[in-house]
Amino acid sequence: MVGKEQSIEFLERVLRLSASGPIEARLTHDRLALTRFADSSIHQNMVKDNIALKLRVVIGKKIGTATVNSTAMADVRRALGVAERLARLQADDPDFVSLPTPTAFVTSRTYYPETAQCSPARRAEAVDALVQTAAAVNLRAYGSFVTETNELAVASSLGVRAYNCSTTAYLRTVMMSPQHSGTGYADFLSRDIADINPKALGEEAAERCALGEHARELSPGEYEVVLTPYAVSDMIRFLGYLGFTASSLQEGRSFLSGRIGERVVGENISIWDDAFDTATLNMPFDLEGVAKRRVSLIEEGVAAGVVYDSYAAHKEGLLSTGHTPPVRGAACLPIS
What domain range is 260 assigned to? Predict the structure, then answer.
């Protein structure tokens, strides 16, 4: 790991390189280890380790960004020059107000050494547990097991200083009968690898596979269905992408446009975003270093609100809720 002290110190050196205007520097260090298996056999092990610096330069109401996969100061200077040049080429953005100012955020546990130190042998043991569970009921197992360590540090000339290190472990599998007459899916995602029970996950997938063994055709029509939690999570994920963001609401793309305060679903449905809930992939701040806040999206079926990054919040005279998307529409040139 790079670590908090070294990450912030490096970003402060980067900030001192620019005199053209406000600047934001974001350092990410990601280490991903993957074990993939098919037909009940491991066929791939890999590790990807990447460090990246993203720069955002503001000149008046113009913004330029550049990303470089290097911490060498010569490369950083080149990237900064690209960002400044792109900023000057932009037309003024009348909706841009400012980069975020510092916010106080509450830290929560996001890093688990056991996850970060997971070996290929341990992932193989988990896969073996799945394979043995599948073999016991004459099924074949397919899937992957990923463990990650992610460092994020953000600093800006407006005083933002934020650092967090997190881990994730993600095991998923599809089990299939030899005749391909049925499949069963199961997965588990957690910051703590100790939460993952491969045997239980295998049993869940095998049970779901068995339910499809005697499938029959249905004539076209309307049917009531019971969705699995995996299907519901996919639906919520796409609602998040497409409708629960302030930008989609402001641009009229959201299904909530013009409907805040109205009933949009059944009163038995409430949806909120809470980055501090440890049942989620909790995170204290967003990619701009802004503290995350709990946001109620739907309350007992009524559209309650959306999440904001600093850009969308400034358009309405509001504060960011700490929900900056990975990409905001400023010019960007990757440098390698």
Answer: 4-211+219-335
> Residue 42: which residues within 8 A CB-CB, separation 6 or more?
35, 36, 124, 127
Beta strands in the chain (DSSP E): 23-38, 41-59, 62-68, 140-156, 161-176, 183-190, 271-273, 295-299, 302-303, 331-335
Beta-bridge mates of residue 63: 58
pTM: 0.91
Band (37; pLDDT cuts 50, 70, 90): very high
82 contacts 108 by C-beta, under 8 angstroms: no
Secondary structure element (H or E) that encloses residue 209, with its range: helix 198-211
In terms of C-beta density within 10 A (0-12 exposed, 13-18 middle, 19 or more buried), how is residue 72 classed? exposed
Q: Is the dihedral of CA 223, 229, 231, 232 positive or negative?
A: positive
CATH number of residue 167's parent domain: 3.30.2290.10
d(CA 159, CA 164) in angstroms, rounded, equals 17
> Is the model's pLDDT at 105 over the cut of 80?
yes
Find tokens 């056999």 and name the residue.
41
| pLDDT for the residue numbered 212 | 82
User: 319: closest CA among 26, 102, 92, 94?
Assistant: 102
- How far, in Å, CA of 239 to CA of 254, rounded? 9
Count of domains in the chain? 1
User: CB neighbours of 275 closer than 8 A, spacing ≥ 6?
Assistant: 282, 283, 284, 292, 294, 322
Burial of 64 per CB tally in 10 Å (0-12, 13-18, 19+): buried
Please list, in sequence order, all residues whose beta carbon lies within 8 angstroms of the beta carbon of residue 254, skipping any fewer than 6 positions away. Answer: 242, 243, 244, 245, 248, 306
pLDDT at site 332 = 35
Structure confidence by residue, pLDDT tens digits, 202-217: 999 999 999 887 788 8
With contact defined as beta carbons under 8 Å apart, do 196 and 187 qualify? Answer: no
